[in-house]
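Me: Here is a favour to ask of a fellow structure person. Could you put it straight underneath, so I can go through it closely?

Assistant:
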Amino acid sequence: MTLPHVSPTAPTHLPPPDLTHSPVTGWTRAHWEATADHLLDGLVPYASPELAQYRLPGRASHSGPWSDGLEGYARSFLLAAFRIAGSGGQVSPALIERYAAGLAAGTDPHSADRWPPITDRGQPMVEAASVAIALHETRPWIWDRLDDRVRQRVVDWLSGFIGATVNDSNWRLFQVITEEFLASVGAPHSRAEIDAGLARLGDWYRGGGWYTDGDGRKFDYYNAWALHLYPVLWARVAGARADQELVALHRARLREFLGSHQYFFGSDGAPVHQGRSLTYRFATTAPLWAGALADATPLSPGLTRRLASGALKHFAERGVPDEKGLLSLGWYRPHLPVTQRYSGPASPYWASKAFLGLLLPADHPVWTAPEEPGPVETADRCVALPAPGWLLHSTAADGVVRLVNHGSDRLPPPPAEAQDSPHYAKFAYASASAPDTVGAGIDNHIALVAADGTASRRGRIHPLGAAGCRAASWHTASLSGADHRIETTSVVHGAWEVRVHRVAGPRGAAVREGGWALADDSGPLAHDVGPGWARARRPDGLTSAVVALHGWDGVRPGAVAQARDANAYGEYSATPHLLLPVHPGGVHLLVTLVVLGADLEIAGASARATAEGGVVVRFPDGAEQEVLR
């Protein structure tokens, strides 16, 4: 299934597809190289006079344009480095000269193009790590050829990390990488700070290949493009200086992670749309290449390339990069709600990490083996991930991956305030759907609703477990100054999910539950409603539906909320939802069928409470499961 709002067409800068070598995507190493060149060429008009900054159009980050210009240089230097090193230096000399000149000017304190210094918790810390990685990978072509005075200035600038205070998150690894590079060139560094950063990473490991990005339950793609990626890159910089037992541990954890990461990509290549910094897009593929690079992957070479190429091709066919060759702040089109305060015009170029595979030689099996279908394409899947509290379930018929969320809220540990984000607080996310990020946010959420329309939020998620095809959690729904517990168990079967809610609430409050938000660019979505159900449908047949199974007013029709410019997947969005006008007070049992898929049956589902307090759920195909109290 393909998203309809942009007709997939082959970008003109790409070579013809090779369906013999890559029968699934048609993409080869030549397509990756052409895309890298296209991205690098697109930046040239925005280079500063001395080539040390790239000042792209768009909203500035909270760090300001000076830092944003450095970000443009550093993140694109990472891309250039993979391209240069991957070709053994056989690229246009102008590319090498461009980034060498930028180093000279950026580290010159008297240059108009000078970079901002590295200071406590400052954004240049992030960019310094990209510069260090790029310098390491291009050492024969750039570092070794720099004038001694320029090399010393680079060392002086990077040395701002030594003794500095770093955010206690994936940022610890920026210090690790940067100071390890300093060690590699014989410059002063702190081995204690390197070791402390690596130890802190170990503190965040939760098992099954999953790290939280700092204390709390902060599970998202930073596990993929940072917390697993940087240890591999650190080992490359450190070489014999690295603790080999620690390197082996990192590799084992990456291998385990990739065993589940392969299930995050739909058959059309789209990654599941969950978490922050989604404007990094195909950076989601970076750990696939890292596993191959470090010999730390359970995936075959042909599957690795299929998944990575599928994601890059998915975005390329949907206008990414744009007509100027630029990566915008958004997902497909510009869409600022998928960004954060720290996101500036060049932030999307962390997507450069996706090109890590170019470091593997052209005759490596990851480039020469025939592509193999992805796991989502070959069978229906249900994968429990206990560490983040997630279920992944996908269906081969439509190629859609759905993530059921009972564990990631990106909140620091208590007593921090329990605010929420649409990219963490929803009950589910998918490869073919994004949450509405503007407005009431009713999709994939259950809320107590006061008479004035105020709705409770999910806030902190308290996981109760994820195993088999079930996951559960509870959260506190605050309404009118009082707190009420909502406990939810999700049971999945094929494309169907049944949510069993035990909702504590005040008598008279309403209860509202939303299904998936669907979005499209062609116009308002078709929808229909009936007694106890509602659904919306995209032009390509993808359907979102909710069906009342128990505890709702089964006669009351469902409804569909429509929005505009609220969704990363399209201009127009629609969310089917149910409403219980009056909560009876106490703990009330509600059971809902929630559906996202193509041409799926919703009739025939039911639920009944048992004398023991459990619920027997019947899916539309007749399969039954019991959910115990």
